[in-house]
Amino acid sequence: MSSTLDIGGVVIIGGGGHAKVVIESLRACGEPVAAIVDADPTPRQVLGVPVVGDDLALPGLRAQGLSRLFVAIGDNRLRQKLGRKAREQGFSLVNAIHPSAVVSPSARLGEGIAVMAGVAINAETRVDDLAILNTGAVVDHDCRLAEACHLGPASALAGGVTVGERAFLGVGARAIPGVSIGADTIVGAGGVVVRDLPDAVLAIGVPAKIKGDRS
Ligand code: JB2
Question: What Rg do the C-alpha atoms of the chain give, in angstroms?
Answer without folding.
Answer: 17
